[in-house]
Automatic annotation (TrEMBL):
Belongs to the Cob(I)alamin adenosyltransferase family. It catalyses: 2 cob(II)alamin + AH2 + 2 ATP = 2 adenosylcob(III)alamin + 2 triphosphate + A + 2 H(+). Homotrimer. Its EC number is 2.5.1.-. This is Cobalamin adenosyltransferase. Residues 8-165 form the Cobalamin adenosyltransferase-like domain. It comes from Melaminivora alkalimesophila. One of its GO terms (biological process) is cobalamin biosynthetic process. It comes from the Bacteria. SUPFAM superfamilies: Cobalamin adenosyltransferase-like. It holds the Pfam family Cob_adeno_trans. Keywords: ATP-binding, Cobalamin biosynthesis, Nucleotide-binding, Transferase. Residues 1-26 are annotated as: Disordered.
Length: 190
């Protein structure tokens, strides 16, 4: 593994390259740093979500997700290395089953809105999808384990579900899209 930073202003990236954990340097515009950056941005947005009032179980889950995202980013920074474990994906699957069981069936598409915490969870969801696309693109360029891609896919699903949970925290509800199709369908039945 590469050297840990003891100072931040190293100036080694001034030439448009960045160092990976295996001591190689690559363009900052290449797939690996782009995927790492998207995962880092997702982790930062989850940190912002954690500034909101949240149920304690959701808070604990999101703190653990931040640690897993750090593992995922570390794995991306060291080609061929494995840091993200199968248990991390299993945790997301369990959380999805737990929180989905509490929610009513969706009637229509929902808007990324509602409470501030729910809206921030939706921002996290969209950044997770972007990070997933970056990891998929990286996997098309070079050998990459499936675990990072699967984790981000499942995490974006969980963040959608958590946004719905957070909108209901104080008796609220989803913010439904006012679909022309649904409006017509409702008039036809009425």
């Amino acid at each position: 593994m590469g050297n840990r930073l003891t100072q931040i202003a190293t100036r080694t990236g001034d030439d448009g390259t960045t160092g990976l954990g295996n001591n190689t340097r690559v363009s900052k515009a290449s797939g690996r740093p782009c995927a790492m950056g998207d995962v880092d941005e997702l982790n930062s947005h989850i940190g912002l979500l954690l500034c909101e009032p949240l149920p304690e179980d959701v808070r604990e889950l999101l703190v653990d997700v931040q640690h897993q995202l750090f593992n995922l980013g570390g794995e991306l920074s060291i080609p061929g290395f494995e840091l993200l474990k199968d248990e991390a994906l299993a945790q997301l699957d369990e959380a999805l089953a737990h929180y989905n069981a509490q929610l009513p069936r969706l009637l229509e598409f929902i808007l990324p809105a509602g409470t501030r915490a729910a809206a921030q969870a939706h921002v996290c969801r969209t950044v997770a999808r972007r990070a997933e696309r970056a990891v998929v693109a990286l996997g098309a360029e070079e050998e990459l384990r499936a675990a990072p891609r699967r984790y981000l896919n499942r995490l974006s699903d969980l963040l959608f579900v958590l946004a719905r949970v957070l909108n209901r925290m104080d008796g609220g509800d989803d913010v439904y899209w006012k679909s022309e199709r649904v409006a017509r369908h409702g008039r036809e039945e009425g």
